[in-house]
Amino acid sequence: MKYIVGFSRVFVGILFIISGLIKLNDPVGFSFKLEEYFSQGVFDWPIFMPYALGIAIFVVIVEVVLGVMLLIGFKPRFTVWSLLAMILFFTFLTFYSAYFNKVTDCGCFGDAIKLTPWESFTKDIILLVLIAILVFGVTYVKPLFNRKVNLNVMAFALVGCILFCYQVLSHLPSLDFRPYKIGANIKEGMTVPDNAPKAIYEYEWKFKVDGEEEIIVTNGDYPDIAGEFIGVETTEIQKGYEPPVHDFTIEKEGGDFTESMLQEPKLVMVVAYDLAKSNYGVFESLKSTTDEAIRKGYKVIGMSASSNEVGQALAKEYDLNFDFYFTDETTLKTIVRSNPAILVLDNGTILQKVHYNDFDTLEFEEPENGIYFDLRLKKGLDSILELDQKYRANPSSETWKLQMAIDSSNIDYVAKVIAEHGYPGKSMVGEGANVAAWYVIQHSDEIGQYLPVIKKAADQGELPFRLYAMMLDRHLMQSNKPQIYGTQGSSYFMGTPNQISFIWPIQNPDSVNILRKGIFENTVEENAKRLFGDDFELKYYTLEEINKLIPEINN
Question: I need a surface site. Which of 30, 220, 456, 513 has the fewest CB within 10 A?
Answer without folding.
Answer: 220
